[in-house]
Amino acid sequence: MPYALWMAWALGAVITLSKEGSFGQASLTCDSTGVCVGRLNSLNSIPSGLTAAVKSLDLSNNEITYIGNSDLQRCVNLQALVLKSNKINTIDEDSFFSLGKLKRLDLSYNDLSNLSSSWFRPLSSLESLNLLGNPYKTLGETSLFSHLTNLRTLKVGSTDSFTKIQRKDFAGLTFIQELEIDASALQSYEPKSLRSIQNISNLTLHMRQPILLLEIFVDLLSSVEYLELRDTDLCNFHFSELSISETNPLIKKFTFRKVKMTDKSLFQVIKLMSYASGLLDLEFDDCTLDGVGDFSTSDKDKVIDPGKVETLTIRRLHIPRFYLFYDLSTVYSLTERVKRITVENSKVFLVPCLLSQHLKSLEYLDLSENLMVEEYLKNSACEHAWPSLQTLILRQNYLTSLEKTAETLLTLKNLTDLDISKNSFHSMPETCQWPEKMKYLNLSNTRIHNLTYCIPQTLEILDVSNNNLNSFSVTLPQLKELYISKNKLKTLPDASFLPTLLLLNISTNTINTFSKEQLDSFHKLKTLEAGGNTFICSCEFLSFTQEQQALAKVFINWSENYLCDSPSHVRGQRVQDVHLSVSECHRAVLVSGMCCALFLLILLTGVLCHRFHGLWYMKMMWAWLQAKRKPRKAPRRDICYDAFVSYSEQDSHWVENLMVQELENFNPPFKLCLHKRDFIPGKWIIDNIIDSIEKSHKAVFVLSENFVKSEWCKYELDFSHFRLFDENNDAAILVLLEPIEKRAIPQRFCKLRKIMNTKTYLEWPTDEALQEGFWINLRAAIKS
């Protein structure tokens, strides 16, 4: 019994492990290239069953706590391993032993309190390593990265726990493209710790306080090209002199991101920049200046000329006491050599005229997303302001008058490029005065609904995208590029307005089609972007676009953005994939053919009707329909005649002198209906025939050659023919007055011809001895 229990327990354990293994494998999604993703699956361990086919493994945002020696043992071809945002606190020494091809390792934001160099020793191919956000205090007891000769991206440190940088930490590293150090809680920095890295392209340094900033800065002067300082409070930053032995500082760009400063500390920053004599680019992003513009400090005279700085970028600058800000005169002299200035989204409403006049070297000025209006712009662009300015960007400000804006900028004699997009101009005056050298104008997103000759005639590039334009009728003889997407144009602009056009972007309008002739009229056009329109994929349009192979070089995004809007059965399909049927593409020919076929059909029908008495059939159909409206068989009291006699006028002598005498003078007499005597005068003859036959017990047809040729006899016989076979009775009596051949009876009386072949008819004998018998038989037939 215990043995059986033990076996049951073992079997249950095997089943449980099997289920866990299959669950782990199911948590991964792998494609054919070996990229496996298992993010956000609440995994608490690395899935089992990983093989050499896995080249990229992303297990971020799970709950993994441990990496064992065998977890990744078979992943010998793994090139990327992402384990960020887990709870990893333990990694076995040989966990990465088989990952010799690994190029990217991300262990950021885990619980690693100690780092071991044995983890990274086998990773000879590693190019990117991220260790940010772990609770370690130092970078291990020995150098972690000395064996990583291919390492180009390194991110270390944490917000709260990383407190010490030692000289050994970066030993063995000579060139790093991107280095990020979160030293927010740094308390100790061993001099020359970063100097061991000979070249750093980009260094991002997180520091809460600038206590150790100067020591680090001195070590970086000769090795860093781009230095970024983040999340630092420089309000109390101050220093006197730096002891620098470097004669050729390498720093070219310095960025302050989310940094706090005051009026006084700003000058300290400028003084610090002066030690980077090769600095060309200075950037302040999302910074706070807690001051009022009072830069007249005791350190003013000690400020060193920033030297070669050519580009100044300020984005999202926050000045809490902006309403008290009053002066910039003390920094005027520092701006004379600057060539490019960007002040974006910083609530700027005025650039003082004196400052504008001091910006003698300024070529590029970006004041996007500010509070500029025409009145203050006029003060900023005063006489002799920005004398070298070529590019001015006033995107998303509060300009409302295009005429006033143009007039204000007349002082800028060298201005060539102007971006005033995302302002609210709405309308455009008929004429405007612009600087004479204007080549580029951006009026996109300005809500204008028409274009006039306010547009400078000197333009080479015009952007009027995303407006309310429904036409383009302005001649621009020098224009080379026109961007007019997201408007309401229904056709391409007239090429005569744009004789030198090279590029046209007219995407996302309401254009239905364009022709080869229209494109050919743009003699110099090399690039056309017309995707996103509502194309009617007619046969002509498809033939033009699909057969012209050279158009693929002219059209931008030809394969994806050119879609059919109609016909409905091809809506949403790519123009180059649509093929219409022959009936859709040759409709005129098809209609002509159908008309010809219809004409031939009518002609053939007419011939057949004539040949096979079609007219007669129609007449009979009408007579039959008329008869159908009446009772199928007249009641007995409505029968007025014993027989209706149908005969030819040429046979009237026989009927009136012989037949009538024999029948009406017989005892008892027969009452016959004769058309001469009994038809009602003034009544339609067809109705007379129909009524007479219907009111007669029998219909006697006196057949002869004359009868066959008589038109009215035909009507009488026709109606009787219908009645005979419609009611299935024997109302018709055929009297053959003279021998006639059956083929003389019209073919249309097929049933009558059949009766003559199957039933007896009375034949008038020429022998007088036999005539008495004829009358006896006729009287008997009428009575029957």
TrEMBL record:
Name of protein: Toll-like receptor 2
Q: What are the residue boundaries of the TIR domain, all occurrences included?
A: 639-782
Q: Which GO terms describe its biological process?
A: inflammatory response; innate immune response; toll-like receptor signaling pathway
What is the top-level taxon of the source organism? Eukaryota
How does this chain assemble?
A: Interacts with LY96, TLR1 and TLR6 (via extracellular domain). TLR2 seems to exist in heterodimers with either TLR1 or TLR6 before stimulation by the ligand. The heterodimers form bigger oligomers in response to their corresponding ligands as well as further heterotypic associations with other receptors such as CD14 and/or CD36. Binds MYD88 (via TIR domain). Interacts with TICAM1. Interacts with CNPY3. Interacts with ATG16L1. Interacts with PPP1R11. Interacts with TICAM2. Interacts with TIRAP.
Q: Which sequence ranges are marked TM in the entry?
A: 588-609
Q: What does this gene product do?
A: Cooperates with LY96 to mediate the innate immune response to bacterial lipoproteins and other microbial cell wall components. Cooperates with TLR1 or TLR6 to mediate the innate immune response to bacterial lipoproteins or lipopeptides. Acts via MYD88 and TRAF6, leading to NF-kappa-B activation, cytokine secretion and the inflammatory response.
InterPro entries in alphabetical order? Cys-rich_flank_reg_C, Leu-rich_rpt, Leu-rich_rpt_typical-subtyp, LRR_dom_sf, TIR_dom, Toll-like_receptor, Toll_tir_struct_dom_sf
Q: Which family does it belong to?
A: Belongs to the Toll-like receptor family.
Which cysteine-cysteine pairs are annotated as disulfide bonds in the entry? Answer: 30-36, 353-382, 432-454
> What organism does the record attribute this protein to?
Daubentonia madagascariensis (Aye-aye)
The protein's matches in Pfam families, at most eight in alphabetical order, are given as: LRR_8, LRRCT, TIR
Per the record's keyword annotation, is Transmembrane helix included, yes or no?
yes
Please give, as recorded in its UniProt entry, the membrane topology of this protein.
Single-pass type I membrane protein
The UniProt entry's coiled-coil ranges are none
**Which segment of the chain is annotated as a signal peptide?**
1-16
Swiss-Prot/TrEMBL keywords: Cytoplasmic vesicle, Disulfide bond, Glycoprotein, Immunity, Inflammatory response, Innate immunity, Leucine-rich repeat, Membrane, NAD, Receptor, Repeat, Signal, Transmembrane, Transmembrane helix
GO annotation, cellular component aspect: membrane raft; phagocytic vesicle membrane
As for subcellular location, the record says: Cytoplasmic vesicle, Phagosome membrane; Membrane raft; Membrane
Would the keyword Secreted be found if you checked this record's keyword annotation? no
